[in-house]
Specification:
alpha+beta; five-stranded antiparallel sheet; about 55% helix
């Protein structure tokens, strides 16, 4: 068994594999490939290993030749984490969208929208944390029999050189700033400056965290070169979520309370921008539910390893 230290997290693989190519984005590694003894090429990709639990196999000319799948226990854990995160983002996005509509039409009592937003924020934070756990436990060991697995199970770890972990952690931190803003919204008789300090500022910081997380996710899925990868489900998940993040940011900017008049910059943009951004995360969550581990498409590949 040999290993590569290219990806922030050590990748252990059969000793007869020969390192072929490494792709990086800054200090992050997003792809490592090796030549196998039967002439095929194994490609470890950061997002694919974390979300789908496999290492792809290709012929020398790039034609897909199957996958090295995660062993059953690891695949089940990754699948469950992915499903919990996906459902959490769907619920969080749905509640944010509902809260925006309630605020826009003035339905319910004065705190109805705040309560709906707060519950939605809980699900956003849950989805963010579960995404971090999934990144921490991404499979990084390929044994001699062609099985991909995690080296252990942890609920928290620091992996700042792992782009998947960094993207998920920045997103989670953003949801915590949202939580501060959502709780602050319940305070009464705030001045304009107090409202900006306790509600608007953490909200806009959370929005920036979402944008940074989305940018890192784009670098990961595109291997450092931003572009369109229409054939890749992971790219669509990232693209839709990043569009939602942009809309959240615009709504956040419009929510600034002018000290001179104690009015927000544009209440319509606040509500409808939040609604549209939340719908983006609902769609992203639905797509993410399909970005899950699967059985290898070419049985018996272990003999080639």
């Amino acid at each position: 068994m040999s290993h590569e230290r290219e990806a922030g997290t050590t990748i252990r693989r059969p000793g007869r594999w020969v390192l072929r190519h490494v792709e990086r984005s800054g200090w992050f590694t997003t792809l490592v490939s090796w030549d196998l003894r039967d002439g095929t090429v194994a490609r470890w990709e950061s997002r694919t290993a974390r979300r789908r639990g496999w290492v792809a196999l290709h012929t020398a000319d790039g034609t897909p030749a199957g996958v090295i799948a995660a062993e059953p226990a690891t695949a089940r854990r990754l699948g469950r984490l992915n499903l919990v995160a996906a459902i959490s983002f769907v619920l969080g996005g749905s509640l944010f969208a509902a809260g925006a509509v309630v605020a826009q039409v003035g339905a319910g009592g004065p705190r109805t929208a705040d309560v709906v937003y707060l519950v939605g924020g809980f699900f956003f934070s849950l989805g963010g944390y579960v995404s971090v756990v999934q990144a921490i436990n991404a499979p990084t060991e390929i044994d001699e029999h062609g099985s991909l697995s995690s080296t252990g199970w942890r609920w928290w770890a620091l992996k700042p050189r792992d782009i998947g972990w960094m993207s998920a952690t920045v997103l989670f931190v953003g949801t915590l700033f949202f939580a501060v803003s959502l709780v602050g919204a319940f305070a009464q008789n705030l001045t304009a400056r107090q409202s900006d300090g306790w509600v608007w500022l953490p909200d806009i910081i959370g929005c920036v965290c979402f944008l940074v997380s989305g940018h890192l996710a784009f670098l990961e899925v595109c291997h450092g070169k931003l572009g369109v990868r229409a054939h890749d489900l992971g790219w669509w998940v990232v693209a839709v979520n990043q569009l939602g993040s942009v809309l959240f940011f615009l709504a956040g900017v419009a929510a600034f309370v002018r000290p001179a008049t104690s009015t927000v910059v544009n209440i319509g943009l606040v509500n409808w921008g939040t609604f549209a951004g939340a719908v983006g995360f609902v769609i992203g969550g639905v797509l993410q539910a399909f970005e899950r581990p699967a059985r290898p498409s070419s049985p018996g590949r272990s003999s080639a390893l």
